[in-house]
Amino acid sequence: MGLDYKCKDGTNNDRWIVEKMYPGVTDGFYIEAGAATGLDHSASYCLEQLGWSGKSIEANPHFYSEFIRNRKNPCFQGALTAKDGTTEFVVSNNLYYSGVKHNISKWHEKKVYNDGFQIIESPAISVRTLLQDCPKFIHAIMLDIEGSELECLRAFPFDEYQVGCFIIEISDLEIPGLLESHGYVRTTNEFTNVGWEGYFVPRLSI
To answer: What average pLDDT score do residues 53-78 get?
Structure first.
């Protein structure tokens, strides 16, 4: 029986993880920030169906309430940031463009203002807190958090964790260089031609 891939936005990220990076793996571990409903466009849904464990995080309260109904693996309600606390979070009427107010990218900001929005106070969950109790090797980390990717990568303890692959929305041109400085190189996803996603693997795996 074929897998029910959910990345229908043209990225095919789930297919890339399953078929290219980890064919046959049923005991992997993932982290997904910007988890949405856990179904629509989800890169982790089929991983969970295969038997993977993992952690997700979603700040948009509408998406979070859907996620916990749709999925078994845990999801934290809050925005992934460098520090624990609270943060202003922009909830766009187009829910997929929501993000942390001080980080939201210029392109997404324009869309948010055009579509309408509200600002809420959201829990801020640090990268360190999300990583608590995670294995030291994480098969896949997916970041789609509308401009907060760079802040979170700067806070990531690369000296303590190994990551098999990163899938990151490239909201800042500094991201590839930062990952390269920590031993990760950009690669390709043969199942997509979208320009906004970045795929990174350890240099030694190329």
So the answer is: 97
Q: What is the rounded distance in angstroms from the CA atom of residue 203 to the CA atom of residue 182?
A: 9
Q: Which two tokens stand for residue 22?
A: 């980890």
CATH topology for 13-77+135-205 is Rossmann fold (3.40.50)
Query: 123, 96, 118, 120: which is closest to 107 by C-alpha?
Result: 96
Supply 58's token pair. 């979603």
The sheet with strand 29-33 has its strands ordered as 75-77, 53-58, 29-33, 140-143, 166-169, 197-202, 184-187
Residue 188 has pLDDT above 90, yes or no: yes
Residue 64: which H helix or E strand, with range? helix 61-70
pLDDT given at position 206: 58
Contacts 24+ apart (CB under 8 A), 108-114: 108/146, 108/147, 108/171
pLDDT in tens, 49-58: 999 999 999 9
Task: Provide the CB-side half-sphere exposure for 80 (13 A, CA).
Answer: 31
